[in-house]
Amino acid sequence: MTSDKEILITGASGMLGSKVSSVLAEKGFQILAVFDSNEKFVPDGKNVKKTHLDITGEINPNRFKNTHTIIHCAAITDVNFCELNKPFCREVNVAGTKNLINLAKSLNAQFIYISTPMVFSGRKGNYSENDETGPLNYYGKTKSQAEKAVLKYGKGLVVRVNPIGKRPLGAHPSFMQWFMDTASSNRSFSLFTDVVINPVSTATLADFLSKIIDKFKPGILHLGSRDRVNKAEIWEEVLELFPDYSGTVTRLSVDKTRDGKAASRPHEMWLNVDKAVGLGYSLPSWKEEVRIVLNEILNRK
Ligand SMILES: NC(=O)c1ccc[n+]([C@@H]2O[C@H](COP(=O)([O-])OP(=O)(O)OC[C@H]3O[C@@H](n4cnc5c(N)ncnc54)[C@H](OP(=O)(O)O)[C@@H]3O)[C@@H](O)[C@H]2O)c1
Question: Whose CA is nearest to atom 43 of ligand 1?
């Protein structure tokens, strides 16, 4: 679908929303790219119109009359920050999502909500769309509450995913950027050895989203690589680019990062993607996705 109808993308200044905005714009979609504080991180482009919106405030639907689909990528994503700032996190992640659902209702728009495997406890992994949620931390709780509100809306789709990518230059680095930076500057650090994911790059996810817009079906959909990976193996992949790295890597359980205040983190965060395969999505391997992101990061430097 490449029509005059606009796709409203929240979080267009963030890691995922910025990529989704630029990829969909390149495909010919008209993008209304929403930022809150960081207009400078929203990509420029022929089909991109930037607009400020604080999703926790009142939203005037007249501003968005041409919107056909909302892709909601905005959230407070810092898991420890959420644990320490619960009311603020709830306001953005839950109340903000409900405000956008009301907007979608008044426009009769499709609503695609980007969610996370952190809605699960991470005790077993291989979570399917029908599994009960049971978040360990406050961030996961807010994402789970927001999902429930999305699913009550007849035109709501929850997409759970572990996106990997790069944040715009000057923004807080993504974990892939942080790995690259650590390796290239020879820094020592502690590496978690017990967090398992099936990641998908923001570029691949943006491509999947372009298909979802056209074949929209409400409900829940898990997207990810077809195989799973321990985050420590991603570090090994990064190290292949830096054979002279001589820092010290202390291998730890993610549970050891808890100092009493930090959030609990799930271990087995990999999603069952059989439904996506059945729907015809050609899912990549984790190595393909990691390489896409490494190339993106290298090209920018
Ligand atoms: N990153 C991950 O590892 C991960 C994993 C699983 C799922 N997810 C989900 O994927 C989505 C995207 O994550 P991300 O890492 O790309 O996010 P991010 O880089 O942390 O960006 C967050 C975005 O939310 C926007 N935002 C925050 N408060 C807002 C408000 N009150 N009104 C409007 N916009 C607001 C920010 O806008 P400004 O900067 O302009 O203020 C920014 O664009 C999120 O829903 C997240 O839960 C992420």
Answer: 11
